[in-house]
């Protein structure tokens, strides 16, 4: 392989860079507006609150959680990439259905009149109040990741746009 062709490939001597490049490539298949991966957690289980039963149902979703920023591909492109400038996705290891949420900063929600999102820590779960009113519980295996992911999601909500 020539040096020129090799310059566009991830540095094989830097495993972290190779892993980040691979993760970015995989995520871009699910969200073409991905701009940057902000943080990750290796193992996440997803639960949804069942209002009728007043109990938590475990969704058949377990995998790596990613929080990332999103960007429009062109200045004329408006829509989800403006409404949801951040995203959360759990790449499911159990089946082909991933869990994803668009994350809308509070300034956008207030401007558009859309319901506000909220993230908070309760016991060992990150509670996610989605814009559609659904409540999700995110359980992260690595206890250190819980605070990092929560702080990142709250940071996303606090951004002025």
UniProtKB/TrEMBL annotation:
Keywords: Cytoplasm, mRNA processing
GO MF terms held by the record: enzyme activator activity; mRNA binding
Chief place where the protein resides: cytoplasm
Cell location: Cytoplasm
GO biological process: deadenylation-dependent decapping of nuclear-transcribed mRNA; deadenylation-independent decapping of nuclear-transcribed mRNA; mRNA processing
The keyword Heme is annotated on this UniProt entry: no
PANTHER family on file: DECAPPING PROTEIN 1, ISOFORM A, TRANSCRIPTION FACTOR SMIF DECAPPING ENZYME DCP1
Protein name: Dcp1p
Species annotation: Sugiyamaella lignohabitans
């Amino acid at each position: 392989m020539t040096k020129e062709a090799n310059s566009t490939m991830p540095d094989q001597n830097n495993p972290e860079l190779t892993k980040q490049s691979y993760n970015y490539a995989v995520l871009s298949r699910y969200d073409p507006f991905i701009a940057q991966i902000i943080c990750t957690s290796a193992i996440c289980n997803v639960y949804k609150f069942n209002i009728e039963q007043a109990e938590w149902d475990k969704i058949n979703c377990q995998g790596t959680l990613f929080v990332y920023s999103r960007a429009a591909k062109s200045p004329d492109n408006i829509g989800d990439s403006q409404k949801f400038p951040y995203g959360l996705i759990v790449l499911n290891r159990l089946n082909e259905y991933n869990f994803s949420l668009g994350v809308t900063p509070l300034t956008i929600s207030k401007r558009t009149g859309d319901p506000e999102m909220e993230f908070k820590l309760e016991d060992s779960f990150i509670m996610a109040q989605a814009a559609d009113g659904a409540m999700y519980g995110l359980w992260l295996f690595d206890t250190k990741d819980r605070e990092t992911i929560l702080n990142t999601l709250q940071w996303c909500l606090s951004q002025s746009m």
